[in-house]
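Re: the 678-residue chain
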Amino acid sequence: MKTRYLFSLLLAMTLVISCQNQKDAKEIQSAEVKKTESFEYVSEQFADIKILRYQIPGFDQLSLQQKKYVYFLTQAGLSGRDIMYDQNYRYNLSIRRALENIYKNYEGDRNSDAWKSFEIYLKRIWFSNGIHHHYASTKFDPGFTEDYLNELMNATGTELRAEALDVIFNDQDRKKVNLNDETGLIKGSAINFYGPDLTVEEVSAYYDGIKVSANQPIEKGLNSKLLRENGEIVEKIWKSGGMYGASIDKIIFWLEKAKEVAENEAQAKGLELLIKYYQTGDLKTWDEYNIVWAKATDGDIDYINGFIEVYNDPKGYKGSYESVVQIKDFEMSQKMAALAKEAQWFEDNSTLDPSHKKKNVVGVSYKTVNVAGEAGDASPATPIGINLPNNNWIREQHGSKSVSLGNIIHAYNNAGSSGRLKEFAYDEDEIKFEEEYGQLADKLHTALHEVIGHASGQLNPGVGTPKETLKNYSSTLEEARADLVGLYYLPDTKLVEIGVSPDAAGIGKAAYDGYIRNGLMTQLIRLNLGDDIEEAHMRNRQLVAAWAMEKGSKDKVIEKIYKDGKTYFKVNDYDKLRVLFGELLKEIQRIKSEGDFEAGKALVENYGVKVDQELHKEILERNSKFKSAPYSGFINPVLVPKMDENGEITDIIVEQPESFAVQMLAYAKDFTTLPDEN
C-alpha cells in the first residue's frame, strides 16, 4: 500500500499504503516550512499542479555495481510506462501521442490563449497518465475547442481516430473510477480493466467462480483485463506474449540485467521470480516472488515493480502498473527500526477486540529510503510511504516491508510556504505547535500507518478478503483503519520511551489539530464546488474527522467556531479525542474482521462522501488568494551512463531534466512500447 499524504503538511500528501505497494502520497497541498537550501525544488506550475524536483542523496557513494543495479531497475520501470496510460483509459495512448506530435511540430502561433490551453491540457495528461484527473478522477476540460484541435492536427499532419477525438470534448466516460453503486461501478468507470459491456454482476460472478486456497489465496484478477469475446467472458493476462507483452518484454530485458548485478543472492532470486511471473502471468509465482522479496532485507538498494495497487479498480481486483527504485537512508532507517521492533507491543495495547488482534506480528521492517526513479502509477504523482506486499496471508506469515520516501518528503518540505496554515489554523497556539512539531508528526504518522497500521489486526476464520466482503468500500476503510492506528499512538509516551518522539503531548497536539483541520476543511480545496468526495483517501480522512466530531459533540471534543466571519475547527480535549479514535479503530477492525459490508458502507456513505456545500464554498474563497497549486508531483532525475571504448559502463551520473515537457517528450521517444490500441 502507499502513503500518499502527510496530513499536516497542509496538510496533506496522499498516504498510500503501497498498500500493495497506495497510490497516498503524492501530493502536498502546501508545505509548512520555507526553503532551507539553494536547490531549486519547484520546476513549474500549471492548472492545479506544481511540478517539483528531487535529489538522490547518497548516489555518489554507491559502488559501480550498485549504480548499475539502480540504473537497470529504473530502466525496467520506465519500460512499462505506456501500460499505465492504457490501463487508465483505452484512448489515452492515441490521444497523448497525437497531442505530442502537435506539440513538437506546430509552427503557428504559440502565444495565443488557445495554444496555452492546449499546452496545459497536454501537461495535465502527462501528469495524470491520461485524460482524467489523477486524484479527483474526473475528465479534464480541454479549455480549447474541437475546431482549434482540428486546426492543429491539420497543420501538423496529425491523425486521431474519430472516437478518441470526440471523447476529449463530449460527456462520455466522465469518471475514470466511479465508486457510486447507483451509477454503476463498471459502467460508470472509464478505467480500462473491463470490457465496456460487462456488468458488476458478471464481474462478481466470474471471480466468485474462481476457487482459491482459503489459507493462501492468490490475488485473483490482479494482472488481467476482463472482457467478453464470442459471448464468453475471458481474461486477457498481462504477460510476455499476452496483453501488454511488448512492454513486459522490455521490462524483462532490464530486469535480467539487474539480476546480473544484484547485491546479494536473495535479491537475484527475487528478480528471477519476478521475471518468471512476467513471462507466465502466474499469480502463484507472484506470491512466491513477494515472499522472497519481503524477506530480502539486506543490501542498500530495493525496488517495487509490478501490477500492484488496486485503487483504480472499482471492484478492487486489478493492479495498476508501477515502479519505484530506492536507496537506503541509513541514519533515518536506524531510528525507524525502533518502531518496527515494538510492533507486537502496539498490537497488544491497541483498542481492538482481543479476537481481532494478531498473536504474532511477523517481520515488519521499516526504512527511510531515497527515491532514485519512479514510473507508472507512482509518477509523476508519487507516494511518500509504501507498505508491501498487499496479500494479507503473505504479510501475516512472512512479513512485509514499509518504507518512507525521505527525499520526496524533503522536497515537499522545501517547496512551499506557511500561508495556508495561518489561514486555516484557529489560533497562534495551533500554528506554533504545527511549526514546531508538524513535520515530525507527519513522519511518525506515516511510519505508524505503514508499519503498525497495515500490519495490525486479523480476519475472523472463514471470512473472505476485504475486497470480496467490503467491495468498493474496502480501500477507504483500510486507509481509515491504518490512519487511526497512527492517530491513536502518536500521543503515547511509548514513542518517547523508544526514542522516536521528543514530546508525546506536542506531537499529539500537532497531529490531531492537523488531521481535523485537513479532514474537515483544507482537503476540500482539491474539489470543485458541488462535488462529492470520490477518492478513497479523502473519504477516509473526512470519515475519521467527521465521525469524531459527531461522537464528541456532547462534550465539545471538537468545536466548530466562527471567528471574524470564518469557520474553524478547534480541538478542545485531546485525551477524549484519542479515546474516540480508539473506538472508531475498534469498530472498523470489527467491520474488516467480520466482513460487515452494511456497517462499512454506512460509515463511508454517512461520514466520508457528502460535503457541506456552504463550508466548501467558504474554503475555496479563502484559498483563492494562494497561488500555490493544491497538487504536486515530480520530474525524475536522469541517470546517465558513461561508457568506455568497448561500450562498458564506467560510471553513472545524475542530471536534472531541463523541464517537465522535455522529460515527458524524452520518455515518449525512448519508452514507447505499446500500440495505440491494446
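Residues 2-59+327-631 form one domain.
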